[in-house]
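# step 3/5: fold
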Amino acid sequence: MTDYFKDDPRTQQERMLAGDLYIADDPVLARANRDAVRIAAEYSRIWPAHPDTAKRILRRLLGSVGEGTEIRAPLYVDYGKHISIGARTFINFNFTALDVAAITIGDDVQIGPNVQLLTPTHPLDAQQRRDKLEAGKPITIGNNVWLGGGVIVLPGVTIGENTVVGAGAVVTRDLPANVVALGNPAQVKRGL
């Protein structure tokens, strides 16, 4: 397995953030993942009874959180620190954000319950999967987007501002601004 990276001096985390293949169970990454899972669980225990403490925990977990943003517990992340959330965004229960690549969520976004933002990709080659290799592609959610309950956004997707994605949709490719998209795979049904 080490032959994959013999001429690449970068760490596994550097490869991961660049979107290149990396070893998913690297000890440094595994420790960072455990820390993030622990902090997310701490947030879930504290929210909503202690809102000020919950905000401090959330700011420790995530890369950035804008003013007036509310995230209902529980939430699930890989690392947390690769997630940036704008101001006045609302995220409902059971949010899953697998952030092996950057996840950027704009201002005034509405995210329904059980939404998943999934940046990891896995090789088609069976041996590479056995060797625990994966990669990732960033996800960007524009300002004033509404993701209905159960929406799944796949790696590398950008959703343009003001777009509405209907409940249960699976977003497999970029969606432009100012449209309504529905289905699996999500398709633009009309403009706004």
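# step 4/5: annotate
Residues 27-46 form the longest helix (20 residues).
# step 5/5: archive (pending)
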